[in-house]
Amino acid sequence: MTDGNQALKKAGLKVTLPRIKILELMQEPENQHISAEDLYKKLLDIGEEIGLATVYRVLNQFDDAGIVSRHHFESGKAVFELSTQDHHDHLVCLTCGKVIEFTDEVIERRQHEIAVKHNIKLTNHSLYLYGTSADGKCDHGDEEA
After folding, report:
1. Residues with pLDDT less than 50, the chain
2. How big is the CA angle at 142 (ends 80 and 126), to the nearest 5 degrees?
3. How far apart (Å, rounded) are the C-alpha atoms in residues 37 and 54?
4. 3-class SS at 34?
């Protein structure tokens, strides 16, 4: 049994071809922070005849099951990434839409300190930072993922 099959069964989802194909694509590093529409296009590119409505339905099921995380960046459309990654935050270029993942121990520590100060026990958190290229030239498309 493949890892994908095990992940689906563990989440209580039936193993189906659309779920397996979508999960396989989501496991590719270049497909993190991908929209349902872009995932659908990639499926078409590899010859998979899975409808857009099915892609949306599967991603919603994966989100409910904790397999993927849904993010709403400034673009206004939801993007998805696998939930199996360690906690990280996001820096989003408003010029090209590139999403840069980062971790920072100081930021993490301060978030916990602030929660304690206000008598809040953190159960979850996310941080999105937005900006444009500091030198006015967006060259994020040249960076490797």
Report:
1. 1, 144-145
2. 30
3. 11
4. strand
For 70-104, b where at least 16 C-beta lie within 10 A, e where not — what string? ebebeeeeebbbeeeeeeebbebbeeeebbeeeee
Q: Residue 145's pLDDT is what?
A: 41
As a whole number of angstroms, the distance between CA 86 and CA 81 comes to 12
- Displacement of CA 59 from its chain's centroid (Å): 11
d(CA 37, CA 75): 13
pLDDT for residue 85: 66
Task: Provide the strand spans (E) within the chain.
Answer: 68-72, 78-82, 89-93, 99-102, 128-131
Q: Kind and range of the H or E element at 10?
A: helix 3-10
Asked if 88 contacts 101 with a C-beta cutoff of 8 angstroms, the reply is yes
Query: Using CA atoms, how far apart are residues 85 and 35, in angstroms rounded to an integer?
Result: 18
Residue at token pair 């993942």 = 101
- Burial call 5-38: b when 16+ CB within 10 Å, e when fewer: eebbeeeebeeeebbbbbbebbeeeebbbbebeb
